[in-house]
């Protein structure tokens, strides 16, 4: 590695030096690992900071990356990538993993939105089902053009303007059909209750 003496830091300047150090790390050489760490840690830090990682997060990622280098140095294949490319790929992947976990926060079991819905009593459930059936029959009884306007704008969640443009109808006609459909539905439901 280096012929400057036993206490000299191993050279990390060339890809060949770096490859030799990785092989030494794979064999358990702590001095070789220290040389790689001192060479790559500041460079990885700059890479991560430029990628938008906060300083503390960058430091954590560096520790994780270098621990991976220590553990996986034997997996390094010089035919696939340079030592630097291999190490920076590990850093990039750790950053991506971190971003994924940030986007999927852990669920809070005390979140009120996650509480089970209070069960409704049988009478309320039956009333809700009967009302739904009446509404369905009332929609089926609408004139075809009103039913279509209702389906396209309400159930498919399209704007009235989009439906008017696609169907070739004037916007006023679409609005009129919807107004008539809602009036008929309201009347049908009032008569049914």
From TrEMBL:
PANTHER family xref list: RNA POLYMERASE ECF-TYPE SIGMA FACTO, RNA POLYMERASE SIGMA FACTOR SIGZ
PROSITE patterns: SIGMA70_ECF
GO biological process terms held by the UniProt record: DNA-templated transcription initiation
InterPro entries tied to this protein: RNA_pol_sigma-70-like, RNA_pol_sigma-70_dom, RNA_pol_sigma70_ECF_CS, RNA_pol_sigma70_r2, RNA_pol_sigma70_r4_t2, RNA_pol_sigma_r2, RNA_pol_sigma_r3/r4-like, WH-like_DNA-bd_sf
Protein name listed in UniProt: RNA polymerase sigma factor
Origin species: Skermanella stibiiresistens SB22
Pfam families given in the database record: Sigma70_r2 (PF04542), Sigma70_r4_2 (PF08281)
Gene3D superfamilies tied to this protein: 1.10.1740.10, Winged helix-like DNA-binding domain superfamily/Winged helix DNA-binding domain (1.10.10.10)
Family per similarity comment: Belongs to the sigma-70 factor family. ECF subfamily.
Record-annotated RNA polymerase sigma factor 70 region 4 type domain positions: 134-185
Key words of the record: DNA-binding, Sigma factor, Transcription, Transcription regulation
Molecular function via GO: DNA binding; sigma factor activity
RNA polymerase sigma-70 region domain span: 36-104
């Amino acid at each position: 590695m280096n012929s400057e003496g036993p206490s000299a830091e191993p050279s990390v300047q060339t890809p060949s030096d770096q490859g030799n150090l990785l092989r030494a790390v794979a064999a358990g050489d702590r001095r070789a690992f220290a040389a790689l760490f001192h060479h790559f840690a500041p460079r990885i830090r700059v890479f991560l900071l430029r990628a938008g990682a906060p300083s503390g997060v960058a430091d954590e990622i560096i520790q994780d990356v270098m621990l991976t280098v220590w553990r996986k140095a034997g997996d390094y294949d010089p035919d696939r990538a340079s030592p630097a490319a291999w190490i920076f790929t590990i850093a990039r992947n750790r950053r991506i993993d971190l971003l994924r976990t940030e986007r999927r926060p852990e669920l809070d079991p005390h979140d009120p939105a996650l509480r089970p819905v209070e069960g409704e009593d049988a009478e309320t459930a039956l009333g809700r089902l009967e009302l739904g059936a009446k509404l369905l029959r009332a929609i089926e009884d609408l004139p075809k053009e009103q039913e279509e306007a209702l389906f396209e704008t309400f159930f498919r969640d399209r704007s009235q303007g989009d439906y008017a443009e696609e169907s070739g109808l004037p916007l006023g006609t679409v609005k009129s059909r919807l107004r008539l459909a809602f009036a008929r539905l309201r009347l049908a439901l009032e008569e049914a209750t």
